[in-house]
TrEMBL record:
<feature type="domain" description="HMA">
    <location>
        <begin position="1"/>
        <end position="62"/>
    </location>
</feature>
<dbReference type="Pfam" id="PF00403">
    <property type="entry name" value="HMA"/>
</dbReference>
<dbReference type="InterPro" id="IPR017969">
    <property type="entry name" value="Heavy-metal-associated_CS"/>
</dbReference>
<dbReference type="GO" id="GO:0046872">
    <property type="term" value="F:metal ion binding"/>
</dbReference>
<keyword id="KW-0479">Metal-binding</keyword>
<protein>
    <submittedName>
        <fullName>Heavy-metal-associated domain-containing protein</fullName>
    </submittedName>
</protein>
<dbReference type="InterPro" id="IPR036163">
    <property type="entry name" value="HMA_dom_sf"/>
</dbReference>
<dbReference type="InterPro" id="IPR006121">
    <property type="entry name" value="HMA_dom"/>
</dbReference>
Length: 65
């Protein structure tokens, strides 16, 4: 799945988001592009789980169309 996180602006943000994703699924593959403000996640967990976790971490994720 690919998410867009427009309010992710730096490496610290990426670290917080990575932790939020790994709290849902420690085995998830996470690829973050801060410049493009995208988060790619490979996991068996559903998108809603990650959207919720990233939102709880203080960011505004959206499914990238």
């Amino acid at each position: 799945m690919e998410l867009e996180v427009k309010d992710m602006t730096c490496g610290h943000c990426a670290g917080v988001i990575t932790k939020a994703v790994r709290d849902v699924d420690a085995q998830a593959q996470v690829d973050i592009d801060v410049a493009a403000r995208t988060v790619r996640i490979e996991s068996a967990h559903g998108t809603a789980d990650f959207l919720s976790a990233i939102q709880e971490a203080g960011y505004t994720p959206a499914v990238r169309a």
